[in-house]
Design a protein that fits this description.
Elements (H helix, E strand, L loop, with lengths): L6 H6 L5 E3 L8 H9 L4 E4 L5 H14 L4 E6 L5 H10 L4 E5 L7 H6 L3 E6 L2 H9 L4 E5 L5 E2 L7 H11 L4 E4 L5 H9 L4 E4 L1 H4 L8 H9 L5 E4 L6 E4 L2 H11 L4 H8 L3 H7 L23 H17 L6
Parallel strand pairs: 1-9, 2-3, 3-4, 4-5, 5-6, 6-8, 8-9
Antiparallel strand pairs: 7-11, 10-11
Length: 317
């Protein structure tokens, strides 16, 4: 495949401006190293890891790839101090932060020589991330799975808004799984993409095979943004989702929803494969995913389609 150079590829020292999102219960060292070996940037998702597990995944990723990789750290999770200490001790080259104030950790990480990227859901937060010293931002639209913006701004609107608001490079996320969508995002002002759901349905993802198969079988309308009073997440419709929907229609409080969510619900669904009682976080773009492929094949397919559509952007080819 042809090489490519822009601010994102140069920032991360990667071949293609494709970043695999750091997703809980899906993004371990096997997936991150496979994406990095394929020329993208793989991320370990630390949100579901105890500190000692995170260190183990970082060390295994180092052994599995000589290319750059990163760690995604949601700032609202416990053990943040310990997680940050570990990524600095292990000299992880790139850290993506999300779900919190980037000013808290950005300069600490940069002083340790780390490239820092923050995930945002609005141009206002993108400006704050740039002011905090972030090297790039991810503009994540309403279509995304996992934690989502309360504003419900779609990628088609968010990407150009964020691109116009900041001078640092912008990665687009939310509703992107193909080369055509990647090209569209870059036409809107992004310089690369962060992709989650497509990599959930990869052979190397640590998510349960039942969940991968459910993603591959999903159609339009099978996901909905939910739990906005707690932390907005896009969920695949199942029995647990229906319980949440019924509770929200009754006017349930945040405390009621937290009690319904309980502990370990995401692990139960995405990692253990309970498709009815588990929390199944996935993006709208699951409806365009029809198979489970090796991560390297996913990177190749996205890039080849991007390159083809770049040469022939109009019509069916």
């Amino acid at each position: 495949m042809k090489s490519f150079s822009n601010r994102i590829t140069r920032l991360f020292n990667i071949q293609y401006p494709i970043v695999q999102a750091g997703m809980v219960w899906a993004s371990g060292w096997r997936l991150a190293s496979a994406v990095s070996n394929a020329g993208g940037l793989g991320l370990i998702g630390s949100g579901s890891m105890y500190p000692e597990v995170l260190r183990e995944h970082i060390r295994k990723c180092k052994s599995a790839t000589s290319n750059p990789f990163g760690v995604n750290i949601p700032l609202l999770y416990p053990d943040i101090d310990t997680h940050m200490q570990i990524v600095m001790e292990e000299k992880v080259p790139v850290v993506f932060t999300s779900a919190g104030n980037p000013a808290t950790w950005t300069q600490v990480l940069k002083n340790a020589g780390t490239i820092v990227v923050h995930v945002v859901s609005s141009s206002r937060f993108a400006i704050k991330a740039e002011q905090s010293g972030c090297d790039a931002v991810v503009a994540e639209g309403f279509e995304a799975g996992g934690h989502n913006g309360r504003e419900e701004t779609t990628s088609m609107v968010l990407i150009p808004a964020v691109s116009a608001a900041v001078t640092i490079p912008v990665l687009a996320a939310g509703g992107i799984a193909t080369g055509r969508q990647m090209l569209a995002a870059m036409v809107l002002g992004a310089e690369g993409v962060q992709i989650g759901s497509r990599f959930v349905a990869s052979r190397e993802a640590s998510s349960h095979l039942h969940f991968k198969n459910a993603v591959a079988a999903a159609t339009e309308g099978d996901t909905m943004l939910s739990l906005k009073k707690v932390v907005p997440v896009r969920l695949m419709k199942n029995h647990f989702y229906k319980l949440v929907e019924e509770a929200e229609h009754r006017g349930a409080s945040k405390a009621d929803l937290v009690e319904l969510l309980g502990k370990g619900r995401a692990k139960r669904g995405m990692f253990e494969g309970d498709l009815e009682e588990g929390e199944l976080e996935i993006g709208q773009v699951a409806s365009l995913i029809n198979d489970i492929l090796p991560a390297a094949q996913i990177v190749e397919n996205i890039w080849e389609e991007f390159d083809e559509r770049l040469a022939h952007p109009v019509g069916n080819i």
